[in-house]
Design a protein that fits this description.
By secondary structure, the chain is α+β, with helices and mostly antiparallel strands. It has ten helices and ten strands. Strand 1 and strand 2 form a beta hairpin.
Length: 261
């Protein structure tokens, strides 16, 4: 079972019985279980796990796992990239574990989820250490990328948009975002492609729409980031629900017929 809630500043997943292989991605990740459940990470166990960007990991639990991915633009995500807490288990407020256990993702669940996320972040990073607002030029670039369907654009074109040389732009982007432009574009393309598949497009259609060379390239990138196959996570046999903040909800199970090739 997989339920996905998409907001602009974070992404929330509820999962059970989904076994991911070892993977890594550009976003900080926080995974939590309810008061009666436990998370397993290697030989260790506990109630909450944190992984900084690009930290390889695989998490398991017999119960329901609640996972938050921070959008790399989030000030806490950028602060963590500069002063990263060590990966591993951390103290999770019991109230958060109880709230998440009773939560059903709906289009208006954003406020409740942000409340839980803020409490979790409070255990990992001091809000006074959050990164400063993005440089206005980089914010303009990020907004432009958000509006692109393919999420594929040359650095030269983006640099020209904000009247900088390509080399100066790439340096400024990495300085502000704490990651390279290439890595950020790949992250956004994989997410957009996955969203399209979850809404009913075939993997091939979603791959072409988001600028991947072919469906195999898209599928490999998705598996490397999330440790799951596209068809297994988002395919017609999946027990899946996709919710967008303030927007639509899409659900299906094994009986739903959708094309994947």
């Amino acid at each position: 079972m997989l339920k996905i809630f998409l907001a602009k500043d974070f992404y929330y997943l509820q999962s059970q019985g989904v076994k991911a292989q070892r993977h890594h991605h550009a976003a900080p990740q926080i995974s939590v279980v309810g008061p009666q459940d436990v998370l397993f990470w290697g030989s260790e166990q506990g109630g909450g796990l944190f992984f900084p960007p690009e930290c390889p990991h695989a998490v398991e639990s017999p119960g329901l796992i609640h996972t938050f991915f921070l959008n790399p633009v989030h000030p806490a995500a950028r602060a963590m990239a500069e002063k990263t807490p060590a990966e591993g288990f951390f103290r999770v407020p019991q109230e958060v574990r109880r709230q998440l256990t009773g939560l059903r993702p709906l289009p208006d669940s954003g406020a409740a989820l942000r409340g839980c996320l803020d409490l979790l972040l409070g255990e990992l990073v001091d809000s006074r250490e959050y990164a400063e607002p993005l440089d206005e030029r980089i914010r303009e670039v990020v907004d432009s990328i958000d509006r692109l369907e393919q999420k594929r654009i040359a650095a030269e074109e983006l640099a020209e948009q904000i009247a900088l040389s390509e080399s100066r732009f790439l340096h400024l982007f990495k300085e502000e975002m704490k990651m390279t432009l290439r890595k950020y574009l790949l992250w956004t393309r994989v997410l957009e492609g996955a969203r399209r598949v979850a809404l009913g497009e075939s993997i091939t259609e979603a791959a072409h729409a988001t600028g991947f060379t072919d469906s195999a390239h898209f599928a490999r990138s998705f598996k490397k980031m999330f440790g799951l196959t596209l068809s297994g996570a988002l395919g017609q046999e999946a027990d899946l629900q996709l919710v967008m903040e303030g927007g639509l909800t899409s659900s299906w199970g094994a009986a739903t017929q959708r094309k994947l090739e």
